[in-house]
Amino acid sequence: MNGIHDLGGMHGLGPIVVEKNEPVFHHAWERRVFGMFLPLAATGAFGVDELRHAIERMGAPAYLNTSYYEHWLFAYETLLVEKGVLTQSELTTRRQQIAQGPV
Amino acid sequence: MGENHTRPLSEIEIRVKALETLLIEKGLVDPAAVDALIDTYEHKVGPRNGAKVVARAWTDPAYKQRLLADGTKAILELGYSGIQGEDMVVVENTPEVHNVLVCTLCSCYPWPTLGLPPVWYKSAPYRSRVVIDPRGVLKEFGTEVADEVKVKVWDSTAELRYMVLPERPAGTEGWSEAQLAELVSRDAMIGVAKVAAPGK
Lengths: 103, 200
What we know:
The structure holds 2 protein chains of 2 kinds. By secondary structure, chain A is mainly alpha-helical. Chain A is built from 5 helices and no strands. Chain A has a single domain, classed as Cyclin A, domain 1 (Orthogonal Bundle). By secondary structure, chain B is mostly helical. Chain B is about 45% helix and about 10% strand. Chain B has helices at about 10-25, 30-45, 45-60, 60-70, 70-75, 110-115, 120, 125-130, 135-140, 175-185, 185-190; strands spanning about 90, 95-100, 150-155, 160-165. Chain B is globular.
């Protein structure tokens, strides 16, 4: 299936920006997102292909305007809710609790 | 993460913390296992692995033959294998051909030999452009490829990962494998750079 992820040959996406001495991760949260991938895959919650498919289902503006590990996070949330591992309301409630201060 | 924050958490930090804490409570994710994976890919696996493979191929013709015939197996001889490297194809740069890698659909990259990919490799500008203007992209990386040299672009997939075997630079005759490995950069194994001759 083609979609916004199918970028090969597209024009006008701007210059290639190379960061000198780039760190493996840029933010602490990126480490956590990366590190959850294999344990989640190991539980059988989803496979690599499903993860990629979930990313490909992001809308075009979101896909182009969010970073790589945000794509992964979006896919985790999407798949875990779709498969009934978590509910959207559990996620929403927990986010509100965290935003309000120490749980 | 998250302890002793002096600033409010950002929206994405909140999302990540919400997800991780829920998964920990449900017993689906062990934070120690997450820590161990982060440490492995941040500190242990990286392009130095690939550089050793290249240096071995430069110094051992029989190994090079095995590497080009069955990349996965030959790379395993040096102890590198595993996720995102299950099926490896090594493509050789020669005076006639220059190879460069991309994953136009996402970010497929050979983790066991090169580690995690840099941001530019995963970015829309590189993925869109390297397949239609590879010479222009190479030039941006400071890599000149003569007109008579053929440029091949290899589009990785979820199952199949490529790695470039760069050309051994002149002036390295008699060098040890370890010395040669020092010369090999990540970018040379992606194919956006060449391995510079020593002293250049």
